Amino acid sequence: NKALDIKSFPEVYNNIGSIFSEKKDSLTAIKYFTQALELNNQYFEAFNNRGIEFYKIKNYHDAINDFENSFAINSNYADPYINLANIYFEEKKFDEAKVNYVKGLKINPSIYESYNNLGVCYSELKKYEEAIDCFDKSINLKLDYAGAYNNKGSALFSLFQFEEALKCFDIASSLNNADPDIPLNIGNLKL
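Request: output the structure for the sequence above.
Response:
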């Protein structure tokens, strides 16, 4: 009987990388995800996981490469599209973010934060009706998501629908009275 050599399984390195990720040790996590990929260069989850770690340390170039490699291997995996969209969102590249949120949400339409972020992209692009639709989808998935109510209120405000905007801001405030943007938005409405 031969002993099982666990070092020959890329899943082992991926799991160890995930442990270091949870411990907020991105550099060590990257090392283990890389080892997983050296054993299996088609391991799309390891590409995505390593991309997340590169994102955390603001190495967007390598993060983008890993996310693109992940969905090139498995185009039915939503996470790398959403993660790539988050980079573009952070960089205020709202058209690119929008494209990737849409792709990811087609695969997994249950990610309420991504509907909210997609709505913000549409708002930034002055497409308020589309933004409101996204905020509504986010709210339908998580009824107590204050951020989506607040963002919907801002989109309604931009469309001069002040009463509806105030209702959204009031709901957001009741859900999260610690967010400083919400009273600011309410104050802007009352000016």
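The chain has a mean pLDDT of 93.
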